[in-house]
Amino acid sequence: MTFGQQVIASFIGTTFGFIFAILLFLITSTIKSCLDKKTLRKHLKREFEYDISLLQEWVDEIDTILRKITANDIQVFSYLRYTFFQRFFMQEAFRSGIMYNSLSNEHISNLNTILLHCDIGIEQYLNGAIQQWNTGQQQQQQEVLRRFEFEKEELKKYQKHLREILKILNK
After folding, report:
1. CB–CB of 163/51 below 8 Å?
2. Cβ neighbour number for residue 165 with a 10 Å cutoff
3. Using one digit for the tens of pLDDT, what is the confidence trace for 28-52?
4. Measuring CA to CA, which of 11, 65, 86, 89 is 20 to 30 A from 50?
5. Degrees (nearest 5) of the Cα angle 114, 127, 132?
6. Interatomic CA distance for residues 101 and 106, integer angstroms
7. Do the beta carbons of residue 40 and residue 93 sit within 8 Å?
8. Are 72 and 80 in contact (CB under 8 A)?
9. CA dist 102 → 44, 98, 113 (Å)
10. Mean pLDDT across the chain, nearest whole number?
11. What is the DSSP letter of 139?
12. Calpha distance 142→147 (Å, rounded)
């Protein structure tokens, strides 16, 4: 084999090796990306299931609060922990584009409303209302009842929205 043939053979071998390495990298990164998205979807579905059950617990707790306020009982020992609402995988799914690829604008808007509502501000507002009721600082029973009835209906609506989104993600 002449020097020129050795150079050409080395060049061809190196080129094929380089191309193979690039293809191998692209294939492995594509497979890893697919597995990551699949895992994210699995965790996202589990997070939705948890949040739906959490919303139901809050609806049940608000029912208890409403019964006590209706009975004019000033010993309401409930604390609504809206900060327990999980959002980590939802935010990650938004970052990765899964939410935008899977959901309509209406579903995204509903989800955004839910995320804004289930936060520390509303938690403090509602628990402050409970505390005011317990200490007798509240203005009227009807006003407190309306506030908690509204909250109960909102939570039920959020459950419905989350179930719809979960159905879409399960497809």
Report:
1. no
2. 24
3. 999 998 898 899 999 999 999 999 9
4. 65
5. 140
6. 13
7. yes
8. no
9. 12, 6, 18
10. 92
11. S
12. 9
Q: Are 163 and 45 in contact (CB under 8 A)?
A: no
b vs e for 25-44, b when ≥16 Cβ sit within 10 Å of the residue's Cβ? Answer: eeeeeeeeeeeebeebbebb
Tokens 């579905």 locate to: 45
> Which tokens is 72 given?
């004019």
Among 2, 103, 128, 3, residue whose Cα is nearest residue 44: 103
Tokens of 134: 């317990």
What is the band of 139 on the pLDDT scale with cuts at 50, 70, 90? low
Ramachandran class of 138: left when φ > 0, alpha when ψ lies in -120 to 50, beta otherwise: beta
- Tell me, what DSSP letter sits at residue 72? T
